[in-house]
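Thread: Newbie trying to understand structure tokens

Hi all, I'm a second-year student working on a class project, and my supervisor (Dr. K.) asked me to get a predicted structure for one chain before our next meeting. I've only ever worked with sequences, so writing a 3D structure as a token string is new to me. If someone could post the tokens and maybe explain what I'm looking at, I'd be very grateful. Here's the chain:
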Amino acid sequence: MPRYLGIDIGTTSVKAAVVRSAYRKLVLEGLGSAAIPAGGDRTAAISEAAAAALGVGSADAVATSLPGTQTTLRTVRIPEAAARQLAEVLPFELESQLPFDLEGAVLDWRVLEGHTNEEGIAVLAAVARVDETQRRIDLVKAALALEPERVGTGAFPIANLAPFCTVLSEARTIAILDLGTKTSDLVFLEAGEPVFARTLSLGTDGLPQTAPKLAREIRLSLSAFRAQGGKPPDEIFLCGGGAFVSGAESFLSAELERPVRRWPPLSIELGEIASARAAELPLYAGAVGLALSLGGSDRGM
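---
Reply by user tm_fold:
Sure, no problem. This is what the structure looks like when written as tokens:
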């Protein structure tokens, strides 16, 4: 019965989640967090958060992620005839759109089902620099003496929670706002599958004075999604530390003119450590999604 550890490294804290695979089911065993000290030494914070989540025992596999600010997302159209050669064709399509050379980059992609038109199939690609990805791997390895098996992208790992939450996997468009301290991530799901994402330059720092600017950045992201053919989200769900900011839901609902509410309950079974912190689950959405990415199909990149 393997135990999967997800490590979500933010700007001010580290969140960790442990998922155990047991007889065709997954159990969310533990949650833990640790503040990153003012000096910025994240190694100790990763170790502390992981220890709190693991309790007694160890992890069989680890997943972490790069912040959205260190990844580039592009949606490109590929002729259907070239669908089987995506690995060869996609770099050529992306090369002119990227601010760096693909030779020093790592690339992943997902085909956006249901977005095929006369111009071809839609492919959402995530690109990151190899050196920045390696630094994140080395950081986690130094803290845990275990090399990550997966490195996620921004808020995409949160999509792995959709199978455990009916309202996220329904046949409609949902937006998830992971509201952090310094920055925030917005990811859009269609029938539970991630199709678009943006990283916002604002978080909870500066609220309530910066609230109008945050709302404006979200509106711009909604417009960018619609410009690519996406439908306006039926609902927006808040997770991350900002989900607990008083008045956030009502303010954003009024500003964005659509329902905004805190992260909904999950149907995943909770272990003893996780049960004690069940009320804090919105804070750990990214870490739980990373842990789930190791236990089967990964909806992220």
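A couple of things are worth pointing out once you decode it. The helical segments are 42-54, 86-95, 130-144, 166-169, 211-227, 248-256, 272-276, 285-292. The first strand starts at residue 3 and ends at 9. Feel free to ask follow-ups in this thread.
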